[in-house]
Amino acid sequence: MTIIYYYTGNLLFQTALAILLISLICRHNPDDHRSVIFQRLMYAGLTWAGFDLIMTLNQIFLPGEDAFRMYGVLSIMFLLFPPMAIQLSFSLIRELSRREKNLILAPYVMLYLIILLFPQFGSAATFGIPGGFSGGLPPWNTAFKVLSLAAPLASVMVLLIHASRETERVVKKEKQLLALGGILFMLGLALSQVLKNTLPGLPWFANLSSTLFSFSAFLSLKKYGRVLSGQTLFETTVKISPFGISHIRDMRMIWTNSSMQQLLNRDAGSIADIREIFHNDQPDGITRDDIIKGINAGNLQSRMVYVTNGAGQAQACLINCAPLEKNRPENGVLMILTDVSEENRIRSELVDLNRQLEKMAHIDGLTGIANRRQFDRVLEKEWHRACRNRHPLSLVLFDVDFFKRFNDLYGHPTGDICLKQVAAEIRKSASRPGDLAARFGGEEFSLILPETDSRGAAQIADRIRERIRTLHIPHKDSDVAGVVTISSGIVSAAEFDALSPAELVRRADEALYRAKALGRDRTEIFTSL
Q: Would you place residue 182 in the very low, low, confident or very high pLDDT band (cuts 50, 70, 90)?
């Protein structure tokens, strides 16, 4: 019964160890994926210990033939522990793909199937169960021992290679500790066999290999637990960040978060060179090569660039880059892309809206030509320009003859239509870039004519007056004609020393008043006489 005590003590010891280590790990961060993986690793160790105890009881209490069949069925527990431990150990470093997990599992599954198909060559004799191959070391038992040694040895080699390439100090220590755990596992495996044969009455030495590995994995997590928790926080922040974040090294994207993949509309693995993500046409006169140089130097800060999304369209982004480690540029840079295409669209709409509002502030709402505010601003500007260049400047004021009578007779809606038609004719004559047609107030209109003398202004005013007559807008209450007519007053300045914009308006209004006094439907030019 000593053997039963041996394996029962082993199972109790492994269970207590698992409870202790898991409770210590879970005190730190039970939801961290590394803590979860460590718990599964401990459960796998319990499976191994439980298998040993079951097979011992099987040997003692079942007949030889039934014990042998039970061994063939339950061997799956023993065969699955090593690949499960290897998978979980690597998962502490990074997530394994389904293909990688299957590659680790395949040899052990094949070995188990062979044991089921060829039970006479099985390793039941190891447990003293009759029916197995008894002539020397069983071949499948040999294969299992080779796998048991080769698997942790390969794991240790991979971990050491990863640790040598790792640049992050904390992660490097973590991988080194796990590699040490693999070495201890192999040493413990050998030591367990020795202790098992020499000290069968000491159950706490059983399966020393899994115990040593459990401690190394525990130290790897616990010693650097706070840093790993910070890394978990950092990884979570990067994962849920709305900004596209990527690690760039040797012109390749080493990893990206989901926001970067959504921004580019493709996976980082499909990008052979980061030049691919930047559009040929860039803003502010920069080139794609300029961007690449800035990324490699890690000194791009809030620079507007155009990236190419999966549809080949240019997308506006702000780019920020910084080295991962200040004194080690070979470790690459962290690149952050912020999609500002929507902000640019909104900004463009706001610019257009402001332009429209500005236009509305300078346009007369009824006639669609410049209002009095715009008239004053343009007259001031043209006045100073004429003074500076010593060029003539003419101003024409128009007034619709007997417009009050027109409104009283035909109504204000018809009066508004009349004003629109008059304004349209005046606007047609403001054909040069500097000319401005404006509503001066009520039924009065104005026309600013830079670099135009009084004769030229009079010709334009008469032409406008004749065109309005030919509109044949009925006006039965006019003392001038049966249609709507206008009067105009002109002032033209060539010498500006004694004048001002206000004085120019006063003189034009005086000329208009004289035109109305002389019978209306005429043009008068201001004279000082």
A: low
Residue 123 pLDDT class (50, 70, 90 cuts): very low
In order of their start, the domains of the chain are: 2-233 (1.20.1070), 242-344 (3.30.450.20), 363-525 (3.30.70.270)
Backbone angles phi, psi at 462, to 5 degrees: -65, -40
Find the angle CA(401)-CA(404)-CA(406) to the nearest 5 degrees: 75
Q: Rounded CA gap, 260 and 386, in Å?
A: 58
Amino acid occupying residue 122: G
Task: State the CB neighbour count (10 A cutoff) for residue 408.
Answer: 12
Distance CA 84, CA 52 (A): 17
Question: What share of residues in the chain are helix, strand, coil (percent, to 5)?
Answer: 65, 15, 25
DSSP secondary structure letter of residue 93: T
Q: Pick the residue with more confidence: 134 or 48? A: 48
The pLDDT of residue 258 is: 83
Angle between helices 64-91 and 169-198 (to 10 degrees): 160
Query: With b meaning 16 or more CB within 10 Å and e meaning fewer, what string describes 372-385?
Result: eebbeebbeebbee
Name residue, tokens 């904390």. 170
Residues 273 and 317 sit within 8 Å (Cβ to Cβ): no
**Cα(76)–Cα(284) distance, rounded to whole angstroms?**
66
**pLDDT of 222 above 60:** no
In angstroms, rounded to a whole number, what is the distance separating the alpha carbons of residues 308 and 264?
A: 7
The distance of Cα 403 from the centroid of its chain, to the nearest Å, equals: 64
Count Cβ atoms within 10 A of the Cβ of residue 314 and give its class: 0-12 exposed, 13-18 middle, 19 or more buried: middle
Beta bridge partners of residue 305, listed in sequence order: 317
User: Tokens 């394994």 appear where?
Assistant: 96
Extract the tokens encoding 388.
């500076």
H-type helices in 274-411, by residue range? Answer: 288-297, 341-362, 372-389, 403-410
Does 332 score more than 90 pLDDT? Answer: no
The Cα-based distances of 156 to 38, 81, 177, 213, 450 in angstroms read 17, 17, 10, 12, 89
8-state DSSP, 135 = S
Helices (H), 199-224: 208-223
User: Quick one: which of 237, 298, 246, 242 has its CA closest to 268?
Assistant: 246
Q: Which residues pair with 317 in a beta bridge?
A: 305, 339
32 close to 174: Cβ distance less than 8 angstroms: no
Torsion of CA 487, 493, 497, 499, to 10 degrees: 20
CA distances from 72 to 4, 7, 47, 165, 259 (A): 20, 20, 16, 43, 51
Find out whether 112 and 76 touch, Cβ atoms under 8 Å: yes
Q: What is the pTM of this model?
A: 0.42
